[in-house]
Specification:
six-stranded mixed sheet; about 425 residues; 19 helices; Rossmann fold; eight-stranded mixed sheet; 2 domains; alpha/beta
Amino acid sequence: MTRGVVRTRDGIRIHYRRLGRGPGLVLLHGYPQTGHMWRKVMPALAARFTVLAPDLRGYGDSDRPASGYDKRTMAADVADVIEALGLAPVVLVGHDRGARVAHRLALDHPGLLTRLVLLDIAPTYDVFERTDHVSARGRWPAARVRSLIGRMTRGVVRTRDGIRIHYRRLGRGPGLVLLHGYPQTGHMWRKVMPALAARFTVLAPDLRGYGDSDRPASGYDKRTMAADVADVIEALGLAPVVLVGHDRGARVAHRLALDHPGLLTRLVLLDIAPTYDVFERTDHVSARGRWHWFFHQVPDLPEALTAGREDVYLRYLYRAWAWNPAAIEEEAVQEYLRCFRQPGAMRAGFEDYRAAATLDLAHDAADRDRKIGVPTLVLWGGSGRAPQAADMLGVWRARCGGPLTGHAVPDCGHFIPEEQPEAVIEAVLAFAGGEGA
């Protein structure tokens, strides 16, 4: 996937996503969305076409001028993009507002397209001409927005030791719990939750110290953090669940599988090797790749150096660890920054790493003979920085008493659910989808 910008004849910058090779196929998004809405269909279509998904004028990463939102002008923008990239003639697909732009483009620039696909609209003139009080209520924008937001609920569970754990919940069916990593929150699962929610009740909590959960002074060992998640699962009546963890959340998931085996049926671990093995096998090469593990352990200094500079530090990590940094869009970065700028939030993240080198290491050393008892799936990024073990399946096979499977995710760095959400969705549904049937 590549991204770029075309400047139109009237000077407006139109941002686009491009994938594949072959005849041109252009996808125009609707409201309230951007070209990102086509993420689930682009890979398959790219097998036969050069697929282009622009952000329309005023949307996404395109310019937002004060005027020019009539469909003739917006269609001219798209025509300029098609011509500038040499894609004409194209198959043109539009959804919602984008379909209205596509309709106008077909009238004003017929030579630029060979076929037209319109999704979920009637012609604008006919819609207005035939509107009565019943249809007007159905097209009231606020009602549409409320219906979209209403699918996702948020809540808080107070754990046994009084810590409030915030969560996002979506869907109906057997429980599936998603545990985020560092430096992120439950928001990192935004690209995979809707698809998984078609089969599961999907829960994405903010771990202790992260996001909108409480940030106590202690309790960042994975045994305590796993107990938090266990309390949430039990309080919401979701057990037993499919448990998915990424990064720090995968370490919490590993500990939960050992300490609370009755609460889960399957385990999915993203981009980690077991904590004990990571420390045991660290050499000068791997230490350079995991420098932050050791920096975060220094008392007080990381807090002092990042205070007021959270954006500098966190943006560096997102860019350094991702194969495709653009996959963590600015909206997501701002949400993460909102959380990590809260009092005590950076300290809590550092305490997570400090616990890994002390209490977690001691707990894992004591439990070397204990095995994960449920089927386990391990995925890791196949591009960019090296995996945490040379043989990822081999290192986990020693920790698993049940079936184990896994693979590297191509064209992906550390942030797998954001960089390659479709790969995560497909792998989880193939591995555990039968439980949500």
